[in-house]
Amino acid sequence: MKLSYVHLYYSTLTNSFLSKKVSTILQEFMPFIYVDVRPFTHHSQNNMIDDNYRDNLMIQLSHDNGDDSGKGSPADSHNTSNNRCKKTEIIDGFYLQRIYSRIIDDNESHLSHFHLVFEDNLVCTYDEIDKRYHARPIICGSPSIISIPSIIEGPAKPKGYYFKQMLKDILSISSKEIENEFASTFISYDDPRLTQVATGYVIQAIFFFLTNGNPFCSQYPCRLFNSHWQEELIYTQVINPVLCEEHLQIFAEAGK
Ligand SMILES: [Zn+2]
């Protein structure tokens, strides 16, 4: 079935501005689909999804992520026990997706409708191999989820940044000065480039459906490249946001 509708959901004032900007860019990029932006509660009132649900998810994760399992993980660098401070909370992406699936109205549950939620918590998934939680900017599926904090915290900053942070006392330089020196090389919360980067992740989530489950591309640069470094992310989504030949063709087919 042809994709015809993209529904973007926002849950906070901050990501409402972002989602509206993303929808404008996306609509220009994909004129053959209809893009709308909705508050998170659009379909949720009858399905009992509210802040209590989200808080319960965080408590659940806090319990699951016991003393040993999350050591050294992104989860550790954030205070999971304080669920009053939303910026520092983490949440299990697949569990969140199962809960958020309840926002999808039955009339919009077929494949011509694509649903995506902008999330303002750090979204992580558990890696069975290294037994750690890792920040995930994107969870594909129905609905897809894009975590703004995970865009900031997930892909790594340049090695030189971490090196200087580690040696800042020896170098007699402050963290802030290092942040300023490397500012162009990573995305920050109030970064104007965040709109383009978030749009790129939406496009990846859409390609998950267009390609039957394969949102990423191994070719660099391609907008579907799975960036593990912030500099890759900036190059593929802001400096040179192009699709490779193969994905351009899939995109052209989708518009027919
Ligand atoms: Zn590609």
Write the layout of secondary structure elements.
Blueprint: E1 5-10, H1 13-29, E2 34-39, H2 51-64, E3 90-92, H3 93-100, E4 113-119, E5 122-127, E6 132-135, E7 138-139, E8 144-147, H4 148-153, H5 159-166, H6 168-171, H7 175-181, H8 194-210, H9 230-239, H10 245-254
Parallel strand pairs: 1-2, 1-4, 3-5, 4-8
Antiparallel strand pairs: 5-6, 7-8
Helix pairs in contact: 1-8, 8-9
How would you characterize this protein structure?
With 256 residues, the protein is α/β, with parallel strands linked by helices. It folds into 2 domains: 5-154 and 187-254, 3-Layer(aba) Sandwich (Collagenase (Catalytic Domain)); 155-182, no CATH class. It has helices at 13-29, 51-64, 93-100, 148-153, 159-166, 168-171, 175-181, 194-210, 230-239, 245-254; strands spanning 5-10, 34-39, 90-92, 113-119, 122-127, 132-135, 138-139, 144-147. The longest helix is centred in the N-terminal third of the chain and has 17 residues, at 13-29. It is globular and about 60 Å long. Mean pLDDT is 85; it is low at 61-88. It binds zinc ion.
The molecules bound to the chains, other than polymers, are:
zinc ion
**Low-confidence blocks of residues:** 61-88
Q: Quick one: biggest sheet?
A: 5 strands, mixed
Task: State the end-to-end CA separation.
Answer: 12 Å
